[in-house]
Amino acid sequence: MTTTHPGSARTSLREWAAGVTVFAAIMLMIGGILDIMRGIAEIADDNIFASTRTYVFAFDLTAWGWIHLTLGVLAFVVSFGLFMASTWARVIGVGIAGLVIITHFLSLPYYPVWSIVMIAISGIIIWALCVMRKDDAFVPFESAPKA
Q1: What is the DSSP track for 67-125?
Q2: Is the pLDDT of residue 21 over 70?
Q3: Whole-number Å distance between alpha carbons of 141 and 83
Q4: End-to-end alpha-carbon separation of the chain, Å?
Q5: Rounded to whole angstroms, how far apart are CA atoms 104 and 102?
Q6: In this structure, what DSSP letter does residue 48 have?
C-alpha cells in the first residue's frame, strides 16, 4: 500500500517556486551587469557599435548608453530583493525586464545579435517571475528553518 503525505507535495512545490525565484534573481543580476557593461561601452566609445541610417528609430548612442546603464543598475539592485523573496522585487523585476525588452528592440540596429539575446533573457526573467504564485512563496534564505 502506498500512503500519500499531503505535506510532501506542498514542500516540493515550494522548493520548485524557490528555485524559479532564485533563477530569476540570478538572471536579472546577470542581465543587469551585462546592461551596465553595454551602457559603459556606449558612453565611452561610440565606434564599437554599427549604425544604419535607414532604420526607423535613430537615437544617439550616448543616450542609449545612459538608458542601458540606468536599467542595468536598477536590475542589479532589484535582484537582491528577489533573493529575499520580496513581492515588490517581483513586480519591479517584471517591469524592468519589460523595459529592457523595449530598449533592446529599439537598439536593434546598433548591436542586433546582442539585442536579440537580451530580449530572450528578459523574456525568461518575466516568465520566471510570473510563474510563482503567492501561495507558494517561501521563507527568505537567512531565516529558513533548519532541517
Answers
A1: HHHHHHHHHHHHHHHHHTT-HHHHHHHHHHHHHHHHHHHHTTTTSHHHHHHHHHHHHHH
A2: yes
A3: 8
A4: 28
A5: 6
A6: G
